[in-house]
Design goal:
The protein is mostly helical and 303 residues long. The protein has 10 helices and no strands. It is found in: Membrane.
Length: 303
């Protein structure tokens, strides 16, 4: 009898807590505390502060300004996990040399980590100011890791026959990644007024790959290579990847389209939503380009 009563009380407690977790309404930008005010072109649809991780989690099933941000990268993260398993178990890449699996794995793992950290950031950002700062830093770290994870495998296949050159450019990339991660953990870097600066830092870091690209073109180009279909597939997809990333960053930094119609894009397709979509598409293009680049080295007569 007592046990049944205790269980009923516990069930009632869970029911009350569950109701409280869901009993919140989206609010206007000007009703948010200063630490949650990020984009003043998004007028309505913001989550209020929620000092509960459980409440933050359940909020992913509600419609607000962050819903699409959360789900685009959550689905993207899961998709890359599935792709990774399929790639190494059910395709010709299952039998490639171990070092090549590592190189492809570097990109896949950093993509998964980046998308996972992004999902966590947008889910937990409304918890508290302290948690916001933490997950924001982790989000930047994820971006830094993805940039390095995208460049390093390309360096490996681009300079396939030059170990010293590989090591030199890989060390340069890893150093820039370390600097970027370090800067990400500086509190002031998370401030809203550094929004454009943040985008610029990561853009410059990403475009550091131009240096080894020019090097390869000037000193390591192979005439025969330019007639290989896999090589041109890689070039097309990597070029598309760059275009998508740049476009996404421009939308994010300039807050397009909501700056032209404040309040009209609060729930769907504001700049951060579009940025997430472009990032996901760019990551898919990069994987396609990277596997094509690997095909040239692994499955053709060109080395």
């Amino acid at each position: 009898m007592i046990n049944k009563l205790v269980r009923k009380v516990e069930n009632m407690e869970h029911a009350v807590l569950d109701t409280l977790h869901r009993a919140w309404n989206v609010c206007h930008f000007h009703h948010l505390p200063e630490w949650l005010q990020d984009n003043d072109y998004l007028l309505f649809g913001h989550r209020p502060p929620m000092a509960s991780f459980e409440a933050c989690f359940w909020s992913i099933f509600r419609l607000h300004t962050e819903t699409l941000n959360i789900w685009t990268h959550a689905i993207g993260c899961f998709s890359f996990i599935v792709i990774s398993i399929y790639l190494f178990l059910a395709t010709s890449y299952a039998s490639i040399p171990f070092v090549d699996k590592i190189m492809l794995g570097i990109f896949l793992i950093t993509a998964i980590v980046c998308l996972a950290l992004s999902t966590c950031y947008h889910t937990l950002a409304c918890h508290s100011h302290q948690i916001l700062l933490l997950v924001c830093k982790l989000d930047y770290c994820g971006i830094s890791l993805l940039i390095a994870g995208s460049i390093v495998p390309c360096l490996y296949y681009a300079f396939y026959d030059s170990l010293i050159t590989q090591i030199f450019y890989m060390l340069m990339t890893i150093t820039l990644c370390a600097v970027s991660v370090t800067v990400s953990f500086v509190d002031t870097f998370s401030d809203t007024k550094y929004r454009t600066f943040r985008a610029s830092v990561f853009t410059i870091y990403a475009f550091s790959s131009i240096v080894p690209t020019i090097h390869w073109y000037l000193f390591h180009s192979n005439t025969e290579l330019f007639y290989d279909s896999s090589f041109w597939t890689a070039i097309k997809f990597l070029s598309l990847m760059i275009t998508l990333y740049v476009t996404g960053v421009l939308f994010y930094a300039l807050r397009i389209p909501e700056r032209f119609s404040p309040g009209k894009f609060d729930f769907y397709f504001h700049s951060h939503h579009l940025f997430h979509i472009f990032v996901l598409l760019a990551a898919i293009c990069h994987l396609r380009g990277l596997t094509s680049l690997a095909d040239v080295r692994l499955f053709s007569s060109i080395h």
